[in-house]
Amino acid sequence: MQSKLNVIVGAIAITLGGAAMAQDAVVKIGHVGPTSGAIAHLGKDNELGARMAIDELNAKGVTIGGKKVKFELLAEDDAGDPKQGTAAAQKLVDSKVNGVIGHLNSGTTIPASKIYSDAGIPQISPSATNPKYTRNGYKTAFRVVADDVHLGGTLGKYAVTQLKGKSIAVIDDRTAYGQGVADEFEKGVKAAGGKVVGREFTNDKATDFTAILTSLKGKKPDVVFFGGMDAVAGPMLRQMKQLGIEAKFMGGDGICTAELPKLSAGTLADSQVVCAEAGGVEGESKKSLDAFKVKFKDKYKVDVQIYAPYVYDAVNVMVAAMVKANSAEPAKYLPVLAKTSDYKGVTGTIAFDAKGDIKNGALTLYTYKAGAREQIAVVR
């Protein structure tokens, strides 16, 4: 009799357990970044930011529309390559993700955004800064950082007014990001009354810059701006030193990383580099960001590179819209996401404008001293 009772109790337990599991709705969130290739350290940084958010949401036991949900992260590698980026986007669409965080680079984010738009899947980029991303009219495209018009323009003005640059050279890597930020920098220089003495280009896989640097050296630049990523900027800085070019070196968020001193093989002079991160916090918000960085290092045993906190916020903003809409269905929560007006994240308050851009986006200017990044100012 006892054994029969045990069987019945066991069957009831299995049934109830199965029912509980059945009630846990699965919500799939995609993340895409370059987790292989020269800037894999940046892609992994972004992915870890997403994983931290997902882990915390699952630990909290979030309910959407009265049902407890389990979040799953579907992580894809685009290697910073536009073709691989669109393939990754299509894979996520085929996997029926509820939303996407990514991509990291503008060159992969922009072509992928059409695929997400066609599928009606919301996409929040934590780091793509090319203005075109939110100017294609896609209702599914959002970003949580300022764009290159703001970033490049601010750096251009800074080069003239603060660094007192008289002869400014510009180099870009011909990617959507690098060329875009360099164009806006050049406009900013000219608007501030500065002079661009040379414009050269390379590519995002290059390692030898002798020819373009020798050409620029003859023009005696006191500021050199590079539109591109840290994996190229590091060797470029080394070769500038070898050629005796002692100009200030400027760049956007792509070079503004914790890895830059290592990538330049320790050739950085104190305060030689001025770069900007498309984001920034002050006061109470800075405490939240600093606390995030400590928590991140405790969890993953590595420092934040750049955009992990923005990825973390992007995941949480997306989920907050799902909760508010009582649905994780893209068509139902998308209008709520678009109306986000006062989400308090670790990177500050997030609100989207009609294009999907962040309102009142900040920039943080940095330099490097003794091999470490040091904040100069936050500007809006």
UniProtKB/TrEMBL annotation:
Protein name: Branched chain amino acid ABC transporter substrate-binding protein
Entry keyword annotation includes Transport: yes
GO biological process, one term: amino acid transport
Coiled-coil annotated spans: none
Keyword flag Signal: yes
Pfam families xrefs: Peripla_BP_6 (PF13458)
Family assignment from sequence similarity: Belongs to the leucine-binding protein family.
Record field: transmembrane: none
Keywords assigned: Amino-acid transport, Signal, Transport
Signal peptide span: 1-22
Domain Leucine-binding protein residues, every copy: 27-370
